[in-house]
Amino acid sequence: MSESTPLIQSQYSYKNDDEEEAAPAPAAARGGRIGSRVRPSMSWVNKALFTITGLILFCAFLYLPYYFTPKAISLSKIANVQTLYTEFDDPFKRLIFVGDIHGNYMEFTKLLHKVKYNSELDKLVVLGDFVTKGPDSIKTLDYLVKHNVQCIMGNHEFETLKFYTQFHHLDAPTFSNTDSANKYKFLPASITQDITFNDDFRLAKKLQPEHVKYINSCPVILHFPKLEIVAVHGGLRPDLTLAEQDPLDNLDMRALIGPFFNETTDDPHTPNSVRWYKLYNKADGAVPANNIVYYGHDAGKGLNLRKFTKGLDSGCNKGKKLSAMIVTGEKRKNGKIELLEELVQVQC
Ligand SMILES: *[C@@H]1O[C@H](CO)[C@@H](O)[C@H](O)[C@H]1NC(C)=O
């Protein structure tokens, strides 16, 4: 307080300037410099201004999170199985499957450049887990929405939808297959955990309606019956038809648990478990019906190409590679289509 300005000090030199505002101005100062007379009332005005500004800031602070919270939309049912009766040359020439992108937008665009992606001639299919973990989930989503890219639901998209509905107090996601819709009751348990640093939750809060609509539109299983191709994120149970599959298994499975192998687990170290693709290939494509399966989810195994199963999660988010499989077909004399594959990768 003793550090007042020299001007004031010279005019109020008779007193200890602790009581500067309360003390009446000396006669000598009256009619003197405007500054000295106005100063006490300025302080009062300042206080009022200060309070009002504070109130405005406080209200803004309270309101701001709502201002930045995107508008909420409720979900429609997630398709367990989506069927596309399209084939090569009708309407696309190439099918391009891309493994788990995890928000690595830069590598994704690099890969698309490398495969010379042409949205008019190619059908691009992202095999789930295209968001979270990596740096650019929203950018990736914007691209996928804008180019109307075909997606497959991954476990992270599904988790993000669950968090989205919890955050906005909406009904939890369900599947179009009514059995599954009734079978699964999603516990709000996850919201009670410490989810502040959960990537799926942080993304869920940022999603704009067009992002939500897009993720919500991704089927769990995509089936091209004419090409005998299936795309799924986690895997398939070889003992069930596509319609009988349990979507939560398809999103998250890595292995099947013995002795009956009719139960799945995401943890391949589970005792008595065998990676699902081993049994699927052993069944020699018998069930589910001769389909070649393109999938992701298993970065632990990395690129994993077998006769009937094609694992394309090559660990981009772990600094490894992002993979695309370009699939084209040649019609044989017997009317069967022989699939031709070309693998293209970029370093992450
Ligand atoms: C698996 O198959 C066995 C034998 O058929 C049966 O007893 C069991 O209930 C099945 N488990 C599941 C989860 O379907």
TrEMBL record:
Residues spanning the membrane: 48-68
Keyword Transmembrane: yes
Biological process annotations from GO: polyphosphate catabolic process
Residue ranges constituting the Calcineurin-like phosphoesterase domain according to the UniProt record: 94-263
GO cellular component: cytoplasm
Record keywords: Membrane, Transmembrane, Transmembrane helix
Region feature Disordered, mapped onto this chain: 1-34
A Gene Ontology molecular function term of the record: endopolyphosphatase activity
Record-linked InterPro entries: Ap4A_hydrolase (IPR050126), Calcineurin-like_PHP (IPR004843), Metallo-depent_PP-like (IPR029052), Ser/Thr-sp_prot-phosphatase (IPR006186)
One Pfam family this sequence matches: Metallophos
Top-level division of the source organism's lineage: Eukaryota
SUPFAM superfamilies for this protein: Metallo-dependent phosphatases
Feature: compositional bias, Polar residues: 1-14
Protein name: Calcineurin-like phosphoesterase domain-containing protein
